[in-house]
Structure formats: C-alpha cells, structure tokens
Amino acid sequence: MDQTTVPYCGPAPVADELWAAWNLDPVVILALCAAAALVWHRNIARMSGLMGIAVLAVAFVSPLCALSTALFSARVLHHVLIIAVAAPLIVRGLGLTAQAIGAAVLFHLAAVWLWHMPAPYQMALQSNAIYWLMEASLLGTAIWLWSAMMADDRGAASIIAALATLVQMGMLGAILTFANRPLFEVHFLTTDAFGLSPIEDQQLAGLLMWVPAAFPYLGFALWRLCDAVLPRKVA
Length: 235
Description:
Elements: H1 26-42, H2 46-60, H3 64-70, H4 72-94, H5 101-115, H6 118-126, H7 128-151, H8 156-178, H9 198-210, H10 214-229
C-alpha cells in the first residue's frame, strides 16, 4: 500500500489502540439512522430489520472497521457480516422481494470474487470511492439475492441458489486457505501487531469464508427443504 494513502477506515491500528478506533463518520451514522427509521416505519418484521442495521453498525462504525485495515481476515469477517447476516435481516425487516434469482446469484458471486482478488482489493483500500463501490456492490447484490431467495414460493430455485452461493464461497475460502504465499500486499506490513504473519492472516480469512460464512446459506436451504417436504398445518 502507498504509505501516503489512508484507507477509509483509517490507518492500520496497533493492538493497544484498537478499542479506541471507532469510525464516527457522520455520513455513515446518519445513513444508518435513516435506514433504522425506514425499518421502523415499514413495521413488517421490525426487530429483524433493526438487527440488520445493528450488524451494519458493527461492520462500519465499531473498531472492526479499523481492524479490517490491518487484517485481511477482519475484512473478510466484515464482508461476511454484511452479505450473510445483515442482508437477510434487512430483507426480512423491510419485506423486500425480487425476481431473476439466477441473475442475482451470478451478480453476487461476481462481486464476491472480484473484491477478494488482490488488485481490486488493493484499489479499494487506496480510494474511498472504490471502497464504497466495493461495499455497495457486495451489500446490494446480497440484498437482491436474499430478496429473490425469500420470494421464491416453490423453494427449489431458492435452495439451489443458496447452495450455489455456499459452494462458491467455499471454493474462494479454500483458495485463500491453501495458497502457498500471501496474496494481499496491502497487509504484508500490518499483521504483525496482532500476532499473525500475512500468510496466517490470509489462511484465517479463508477459513472464515469457508466455514462460518456457509452457515446462513446452509440454514436457509435446510429451512426451505423442510418447508417443502413437511406437511403444513391447516388452520
């Protein structure tokens, strides 16, 4: 990373100062408050929506934002929270629906793979505009995908979409885990303060994407499968 370039979340913190590294960007805080007000106004599944906004606050306001400047594994955790936790909660909270589930899968997979490749990722840490393009494309395509999956009444398409997403994230996680060298130059000098080498940080990132990130999609697929197979109660 160009040492004159300061990423959006600020310079990589040292471990002793991490818990003071909150992001108090007024634009982000106002956007989160506006989103919470919208969820409250819609009153569809209010608690789910507010939980989704809270997860976004953890990703963008808490010290996790600064930690993601230092550790690629923290960045992957940040992204998993956005696409696999916040997105479905917000979709449920706002009652969003969408069509074209196949296109949603493809666009979301393209966004996930693009922004976890070394060159685009480095560009995102060197430009606030590209950083927000990364975050908006990941969250936006995730909301589209979850909206389409939740709107699928037949269940089969949503199960396939969830499993396809799970598999491709596992593939990306495996590549990161088993790579024989660190791939993200921007983190070569930022991991030591947290007791990790760059390759260990990358392996941890791969494991996060490979295992924990799979649970929301697997859980959704199993829920849809049970809903399709088990008889429904008649009122």
